[in-house]
Design goal:
Elements lengths: L4 E4 L2 H13 L6 H23 L12 E6 L4 E6 L6 H9 L6 H7 L4 H7 L10 H4 E9 L8 E6 L4 E7 L5 E8 L9 H12 L6 E7 L4 E6 L16 H12 L7 E7 L5 E7 L16 E5 L2 E7 L11 E6 L8 H6 L1 H21 L3 H15 L2 H4 L4 H7 L3 E2 L11 H6 L8 E5 L3 H5 L5 H6 L4 E3 L2 H7 L4 E2 L2 E5 L5 H5 L4 H7 L2 H14 L28 H9 L3
Parallel strand pairs: 2-8, 12-14, 16-17, 16-19
Antiparallel strand pairs: 1-6, 2-3, 3-7, 4-5, 4-7, 5-6, 8-9, 10-11, 11-14, 12-13, 15-17, 18-19
Helix pairs in contact: 2-7, 10-13
Bound molecules: adenosine-5'-diphosphate and magnesium ion.
The site of adenosine-5'-diphosphate has 17 residues, from helix 2 and helix 3.
């Protein structure tokens, strides 16, 4: 139909729109970043599809994003010759919010404006930012390969309704016309547009052009205003730290700088480039099971997919970045990635790189504590998931201990070993569910008295992790809540005291055994306690008391 059809935004969309416009008001210019990013995505998609269907080019292979200012009618036009949208797609993509839970998140969390800015792209609400600066928006689009009469017009004032109509559109791709609000007239200045493009979109791999009057030739020309080369393809020496940081921010929509990164071009049998970042803040949904992670995958500079999880183990899922491979096939799918041998070797290599990067980072205590506070819990999955790299992962773990107070820096296993007592054979730890119950545990009395440090493990995952930690540099781990000879041995005058356990104590032990009968395995005398008269403990081969508690609370 060539008739104008009117639709209503999904009710959620309306609210998001409202929230967005208000929370992003102070940072209006990001609408351009969002539009350029969509245009660049659309061109990437086109490139990808033309691999199998070259006819989609329609003899128009000069892929670019164009910006045109029209001061006479206060419009800013952004067009691309990417894949475009069909009638159905335009309704689905611009009329609904695909990601559920977005609204709840924005409302319940008391985010600062800056935090909200950084979230905008994560939710696929990027396009709506046009309404921060526009009183009306027209989107004309035609999907690559469709008849010129199969174009579609989408029109809205961003107030609950939008209209859609079939139109004739000569060129493939999307053309977006913004009717700027009176307070957004500064976006009609080409110097301002150039500044914004340079700030956010300089490394978008597609040329971005602006229509300008050229003084020399006295004609209007399309002038390219971005570098249009992917950052990771440049020589390291030509890239400034700020370039890396900006690239990271654009890639992740995180407004914080990354803590560190690694950029490597590897040649040989496998040829690839990686640019991997460690964020300084964990994503709000990193613990959500649906959390999307993984690298952005390119094959020979062509964008293939986001969230390629296959290149890093789960316990490094906080890593962000890109991998650009020269060896993988262009038509690689997630299923293929899963099976592919190349990918498996890449995963090993990338894992080593990241662990090395973290090892370097750990030399800077302050940065590393920051890293640990954000991602330590995730890294703790490492010993179980990646036995091959257990040693290096163990070195990266950090612990609280009797001798570190809450405010002090955490210690590494190396620190612990360096401070061991002469007679001490093992690395002692306790697992509980809070710092308070750990530090006050009667199990620690003896150790405090003897000035022997004990690691205090209070995260849920610790108990499980310790099952995979057998030893570190030849010292085995020992839970202090389990009976262990090494602990009794630490007592200086064990021998003498052993003799002194007179018949009375034996009588008492027997009496207790008699009363508790089947409920216990044994009752023993211990040197471990100094103030508490008795303690429940488990045998060295049994689960710890904390594990037993976890099981019983799970109804087992
Ligand atoms: P996101 O880019 O995160 O998916 P947006 O709100 O920016 O969210 O865009 C929504 C969707 O609209 C995109 O995923 C894409 O499918 C479609 N879209 C937006 N702009 C374009 C464009 N220039 N060409 C083709 N499709 C587009
Ligand atoms: Mg977008």
């Amino acid at each position: 139909t060539n008739i104008m059809e009117t639709y209503e935004f999904q009710s959620e969309t309306n609210e998001i729109l409202h929230l967005m416009i208000h929370s992003l008001y102070s940072n209006k210019e990001i609408f351009l970043r969002e539009l350029v990013s969509n245009a660049s995505d659309a061109i990437d998609k086109l490139k990808f599809q033309t691999i199998s269907s070259p006819e989609l080019y329609e003899n128009n292979t000069n892929l670019c994003i164009r910006i045109r200012i029209n001061k006479d009618n206060n419009t800013l036009i952004i067009s691309d010759n990417g894949i475009g949208m069909t009638h159905k797609e335009i309704i689905n993509n611009l009329g609904t919010i695909a990601k559920s839970g977005t609204k709840e998140f924005l409302q319940t969390y008391n985010k600062t404006t800056q935090e909200k800015n950084s979230l905008i792209g994560q939710f696929g609400v990027g396009f709506y930012s046009v309404f921060i600066v526009s009183k009306k928006v027209l989107v004309k689009s035609r999907f690559g390969g469709l008849d010129k009469n199969e174009g579609v017009l989408w029109e809205s004032e961003g107030k609950g309704k939008y209209q859609v109509k079939k139109i004739f559109k000569k060129n493939r791709g999307t053309k977006i016309t913004l009717y700027l609000k009176s307070e957004a007239q500064n976006f009609l200045e080409s110097w301002n547009i150039k500044r914004i493009v340079n700030k956010y979109s300089n490394h978008v791999a597609i040329p971005i052009e602006i229509y300008t009057y050229d003084e020399k030739t006295k004609t209007s020309i399309w002038e390219q205003i971005n570098q249009a080369q992917a950052l990771w393809t440049l020589e390291k020496s030509k890239i400034k730290d700020d370039d890396y940081k900006n690239f990271y921010k654009k890639l992740t929509n995180d407004s914080n700088d990354p803590i560190t990164w690694t950029h490597n071009k590897v040649e040989g049998v496998q040829e690839y480039t990686i640019l991997l970042f460690i964020p300084s803040k964990s994503a709000w949904d990193i613990w959500n099971r649906e959390n999307k992670h993984g690298l952005k995958l390119y094959v020979k500079r062509i964008y293939i997919m986001d969230n390629a999880e296959q290149f890093l183990p789960n316990y490094l899922r906080f890593v962000k970045g890109i991998i650009d491979s020269n060896n993988l096939p262009l038509n690689v799918s997630r299923e293929i990635l899963q099976e592919n041998e190349l990918v498996k070797t890449l995963k090993k290599a990338l894992t080593k790189r990241i662990l090395k990067l973290l090892e370097n980072l750990s030399k800077n205590t302050e940065s590393y504590q920051l890293f640990w506070s954000q991602f330590g819990l995730i890294l703790k999955e490492g010993p179980a998931e990646d036995p091959e790299n257990k040693i290096i992962i163990s070195n990266l773990l950090r612990f609280r201990s009797i001798k570190t107070t809450l405010s002090e820096n955490l210690i590494s296993l190396q620190n612990y070993i360096d401070n061991m007592q002469k007679k001490q054979e093992k690395i002692y730890y306790i697992t509980t569910d809070s710092y308070a119950s750990a530090i006050n545990s009667p199990h620690l009395e003896f150790f405090k008295q003897k000035n022997i440090d004990v690691l205090l493990l209070t995260d849920k995952i610790d108990e499980w992790m310790m099952n995979y930690m057998t030893d570190f540099k030849g010292k085995s781990f020992q839970s202090v809540s389990k009976y262990d000879k090494s602990i009794e041995k630490l007592n200086n005058n064990v021998q003498d005291q052993e003799k002194n356990i007179n018949e009375n104590v034996k009588l008492l032990l027997n009496k207790v055994k008699e009363i508790l009968k089947d409920k216990i395995k044994d009752v023993r005398f211990t040197h471990k306690l100094t103030q508490t008269p008795a303690i429940v403990t488990t045998d060295s081969n049994d689960m710890t008391t904390q594990m037993a508690k976890l099981f019983s609370s799970a109804g087992q």
